[in-house]
Amino acid sequence: MEILKTQNVSKTFGTEENPVKALCDVSLSINKSEMLAIIGPSGCGKSTLLHVLGGIEAPTTGIVSILGEDLYQMNDSKMTTFRRNNIGMIYQFFNLLPVLSVEENIVLPLLLAKKKPAFPLDELLKDMGLDERKTFLPSQLSGGQQQRVAIGRALISKPAILLADEPTGNLDSKTGEDIVALLIKANQEYHQTLIIVTHDERVANHCSRIIRMEDGRIVSQEGGQ
């Protein structure tokens, strides 16, 4: 079942005199529970595409449809609620609040949305390997542990779609493998659609489909549809 679709999506930055085309007519269909990797050289448009899919960066032209809804036809209030309920974001740089504990960082999206957790918090902390560190501050954690907190924060409301932007980029290879294992678990056990932007071919090879981008365009696909 199709969960996300783009039609002729383009994104241009800069001025009319000096335009920079980050995305060029990208059309893409992604099914529920699919695990998709987006790869390509730096500056090819991978992260821009992820931000467009996540409602962070509006396309210049084209349509982004998620769960049958036209994302960029929503007003700001509706889009904020829709994103909070349906899309989880995981970044390379963790983006944790330094004054909040592990537990508080994870439940923050729920407090903002005034929702109950989709999973028992203790169970999620255990799955993330953080049950003995729930009162720690981010500064007291390793990079891998901070990324686990970021994944827990993205999972706590059980969004339909997880978007991960270079989630292993700041980690050593062993820690990166552990993080990928957690993402695979979310995909397989919780049936969440997972879209990963990565430079790492080893990470991409865990996915059911790999999309390669160059110069803002999809140039090849392997696996999947």
Portion of residues within helices: 25-40%
Shape: globular
- CATH class category: Alpha Beta
Mean pLDDT: 87
Integer-rounded radius of gyration: 17 Å
Taking pLDDT < 50 over at least 5 consecutive residues as the criterion, the unreliable ranges are none
Order of helices and strands: EEEHEEHEHHHEHEHEE
β-sheet strand percentage? 25-35%
Give the N-to-C terminal Cα separation: 12 Å
Structural class category: alpha/beta
CATH topology: Rossmann fold
Query: How does the major sheet shape up?
Result: 6 strands, mixed
CATH homology group: P-loop containing nucleotide triphosphate hydrolases
The strand order across the widest sheet is 6-7-8-3-9-10
Tell me the CATH architecture. 3-Layer(aba) Sandwich
Count of separate DSSP helical elements: 7
How many domains? 1
Structure in words:
With 225 residues, the protein is α/β, with parallel strands linked by helices. The protein has one domain: Rossmann fold, CATH 3.40.50.300. The chain has 7 helices and 10 strands. The chain has helices at 46-53, 76-86, 102-113, 121-127, 143-155, 173-189, 201-204, and strands at residues 2-14, 19-31, 35-39, 61-66, 69-70, 87-90, 161-165, 193-197, 209-214, 217-223. The strands form 2 sheets. It has a 6-stranded mixed beta sheet, with helices on both faces. A hairpin with a 2-residue loop joins strand 9 (209-214) and strand 10. The longest helix has 17 residues, at 173-189. It starts with a strand and ends with a strand. The mean pLDDT is 87.
